[in-house]
């Protein structure tokens, strides 16, 4: 397949006017099948990578059902999100074990839709003071044997775990997670600057939905946000649905951290792609009005988003983030944050031939190609 006439995303130069070729399932220097795709008027971008979302189309990862996970994978790919690392909730170990086993079985079955490339355990190792919409009944101090059991259940698929580093045993937990090939993300925490910095020095390299579920950035108490900025290896997630973080703060955060470190996430719930109403969420109920989801009876407590990662990319551009920076933050950066950048997240030769054509004017999807095969075309 040869893609011609489009503006092709490039990690070093933003967008370049050049042809892009695939040879079977990977990008290559030449095309062998003779097919030509006219991408005139389009951006050619990598398939997106979401490392933090809970559900969509009425399904939730934490339900641990094969059909639910398949429906989620199908929907995500239809949105141009080709690789997923769905997040579990703060639940009992029995249910977390089922979630991990379901993910491993789905991966082995390989039945289509977006590829599941990892599992994100967003809980239960969190602070009760910043639990947000998480269920406090199941909060748990950092527990290395528990993490190892869950990683075994997931057959090595756990790639991220969110941690409140002020909890006892956190530093040992961070080091043990690294031995299991797991990246630790700081979030749902009341940690001060010193504690967060110690966690990053111990090996944590990710921050869970920056600004949400953590102390604010204060000029005398910079807390997690300041510590993340000062530790250059740290990659912060941010929810760009137009609800969780103001557009001015989105712009300031990209400027502060730099586009090479930012990660766009959706943090989407089962209500994504569904009508307004009430929905179960981690043993609780949420209510959705428009693109805002809150705990039922607690309208001040945000419960996640109802916007896909592609929708968050479009919102970032509306907020003034350059298209190339938004694309990088939704593809290459999240892939790098879980150690997958050698295979996915960019359009370089040898990587999987997964890409999306976006209309330059509207950013609407015109074609989705997954591992060399067209799966959607406008």
TrEMBL record:
CDD domains documented for this protein: NagA (cd00854)
GO-annotated molecular function: N-acetylglucosamine-6-phosphate deacetylase activity
EC number: 3.5.1.25
SUPFAM superfamilies to which the protein is assigned, alphabetical: Composite domain of metallo-dependent hydrolases, Metallo-dependent hydrolases
Transcription in keyword set: no
Keyword Hydrolase listed: yes
Keywords: Carbohydrate metabolism, Hydrolase, Metal-binding
Positions of the Amidohydrolase-related domain: 43-374
The family this protein is said to belong to: Belongs to the metallo-dependent hydrolases superfamily. NagA family.
Protein name: N-acetylglucosamine-6-phosphate deacetylase
Originating organism: Enterocloster hominis (ex Liu et al. 2021)
Gene expressing this chain: nagA
């Amino acid at each position: 397949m040869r893609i011609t006439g489009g503006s092709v995303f490039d990690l070093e130069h933003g967008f370049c006017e050049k042809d892009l070729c695939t040879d079977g399932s990977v990008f290559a220097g030449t095309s062998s099948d003779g097919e030509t795709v006219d991408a005139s008027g389009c951006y050619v971008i990598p398939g997106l990578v979401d490392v933090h979302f809970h559900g969509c189309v009425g399904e939730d990862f934490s339900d641990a059902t094969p059909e639910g996970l398949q429906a989620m994978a199908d929907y995500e790919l239809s949105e141009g999100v080709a690789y997923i690392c769905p997040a579990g909730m703060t639940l009992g170990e029995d249910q977390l074990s089922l979630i991990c086993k379901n993910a491993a079985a789905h991966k082995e079955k390989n039945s289509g839709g977006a590829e599941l490339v990892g599992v994100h355990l967003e809980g239960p190792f969190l602070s009760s003071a910043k639990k947000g919409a998480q269920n406090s009944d199941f909060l748990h101090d950092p527990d290395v044997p528990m993490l190892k059991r869950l990683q075994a259940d997931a057959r090595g698929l756990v790639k991220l775990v969110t941690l409140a580093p002020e909890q006892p045993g956190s530093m040992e937990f961070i080091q043990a997670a690294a031995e299991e090939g797991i990246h630790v993300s700081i979030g749902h925490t009341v940690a001060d600057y010193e504690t967060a910095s110690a966690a990053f020095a111990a090996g944590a390299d990710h921050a869970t939905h920056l600004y949400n579920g953590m102390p604010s950035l204060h000029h005398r108490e910079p807390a997690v946000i300041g510590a993340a900025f000062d530790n250059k290896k740290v990659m912060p997630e941010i929810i760009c649905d137009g609800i969780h973080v103001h557009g001015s703060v989105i712009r300031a955060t990209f400027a502060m951290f730099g586009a090479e470190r930012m990660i766009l996430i959706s943090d989407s719930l089962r209500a994504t792609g569904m009508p307004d109403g009430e929905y179960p969420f981690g043993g609780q109920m949420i209510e959705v009005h428009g693109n805002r989801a809150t705990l039922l009876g607690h309208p001040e407590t945000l419960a996640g988003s109802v916007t896909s990662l592609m929708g968050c990319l479009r919102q970032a551009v509306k907020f003034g983030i350059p298209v190339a920076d938004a694309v990088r933050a939704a593809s290459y950066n999240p892939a790098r944050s879980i150690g997958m950048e050698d295979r996915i997240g960019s359009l370089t030769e040898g990587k999987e031939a997964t890409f999306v054509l976006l209309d330059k004017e509207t950013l609407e999807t015109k074609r989705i190609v997954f591992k060399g095969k067209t799966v959607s075309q406008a």
